[in-house]
Amino acid sequence: MTLMILHTRNASRRKHLAKAAETAHALGHRAIVVVEEPSWEHEYVDAVYSAPTGDLEATVARCMEIAKEESEPIAGVIAFVEHSVPAAAAVAEALGLPYISPETAAKSRDKLTMREAFETVGVSQPRFALASSVEEAQKAAETIKYPLVMKPIIGGGSMFVRRVDTPEELAEHFGEIQKGAWAGFDYDPLFFLKSRYSEGILLEEFLVGNEISVESYVQDGETTVVAVHDKPTPMDGPFFEETFYATPTVLTGETLEKVKEFTALAHQGLGITQGATHTEFRVSPDGEPYILETGARLGGGPVYQSVLLSTGIDMVEVLTKVSLGEKADVLVNDANARHVGFSLHFGEKPGELAAVDGIDTLEADETVSEVMIYSRIGDLIDVPPRVWQAHGHVIFTAASRAGIIEKQRQVNETLRFQVR
C-alpha cells in the first residue's frame, strides 16, 4: 500500500516528509510525493511525481494516473502545506479514501466562507465584511470600525495583510493590498475565487490582544489539543509577520478551556472530522479568545519541531497514522511540557542574499536544537508583506519562559541576513 503526499514546495517541510515516509514504512507502506516542479523531495520519499498542482482538475487526473502506475494501491492521502489541502481533498474523494471533504477543504482556505462557518457554531470572532472597492470598504468600515485589518481571501503566512487606522489610510493602501491579495497567489488552486468575489478582499475588526496558535488533531470527529503556542512579540501592525513562538502557553483556567472548546467548535463548523489542524486566536486583555482562522493541516515546519520537543508528540506521525486509518493513541500531559521557542527570520530589505552570519555560533549552542535557512546565497529575497514564508528559523529550549524570551533576544542579535 502507498501513502500519497500532495505537496506545494516548501523548504521548511523537509522533516515532515522524512517522518511521514518513516512512519509509512513502519506500517508497511510506501510514501510518494506529488508536487509541481520537484526538486529536493526525492531525498525523503520512495518516489516523486510531477503534477500541475495549481489546477484541481488536472491534479486529480494526474493522481488517478499515478494510482494506476503505482505498484501498490493508494491507502491514504495527506498534505502539509495549506495550498495543497484542496487538492488532497479532491484526490482523496476521487480515490474513495478518507479525508476531509472538498467543501471542507475549501472552507479551510476561503477566509470569508470560514468566517461564515464560525458564525454558525457561535465562536467569538472579529466583525468582518467583503469589499471589492474602496467605496465598499469605507462603507463596511462604518460597521466594523477602525482600526481594521485588510487581508486576502486565500492568503497565508500574513502575506498582504495590513492594518489601517483611518479612512485616509484605507483609501491609500486598499489598492495595493487588493492587487497583492490575488496576484500574489495566482498559483493557488483556489485562485478561481478571484472572479467569484469580484477581486474582493476581507476586512476584519482589529482586536487588541496577544496571538496564540493551537495545534490539534481530529480522529473519528473528536478533537485532541496537543499544544498551544504563544506569540510573545506584540503583533499590532501595520503588518503581521510572525517572528516568535513559545510553548507551553502561559494561558490557564477558563481562558485556556475556552480556547480548546472554540477549537473543537471550529472543526465542527468547518466539517473537519479527521486530520491535523492549526488554529489561531487573539486573546483580549480580559481573557476572551477570538478565533482568527483554522487551517486543515499541521502548523509550519518549526511548529512541528517545537511541539515535538515540548510534548514528545510527533504530529507528523499522528497525521500519517490517521490518514492510513491507524489509531493515533496520543496521551497529552501538559505538566511535563518543556519550554521551547522558535524565531522566524527575514532579511532587513529586499535584494540578493549575500551571506547569513551567526549560523556556526548558534549551532554550537547546546540550547539551540535547529538552525534552518530556507534561501540560498544568491537568491533574491523579499520582505513582508510581500512574502508568506520567512527565510529561516531557529528553534531553542530553556528552563523557563523567561529563559525562552532571553534566548530569542540572543538569537536575533546573532543571526543576520546580509542582503545586497
Automatic annotation (TrEMBL):
* Top-level taxon of origin: Bacteria
State the SUPFAM superfamilies in the record. Answer: Glutathione synthetase ATP-binding domain-like (SSF56059)
What keyword terms does UniProt attach to this protein?
A: ATP-binding, Ligase, Nucleotide-binding
Q: Which residues form the ATP-grasp domain?
A: 115-324
The protein's matches in InterPro entries, at most eight in alphabetical order, are given as: ATP-dep_AA_Ligase, ATP-grasp, BL00235/CARNS1_N, LAL_C2
Keyword Ligase assigned: yes
The protein's name: ATP-grasp domain-containing protein
Taxonomic lineage = Bacteria, Bacillati, Actinomycetota, Actinomycetes, Kitasatosporales
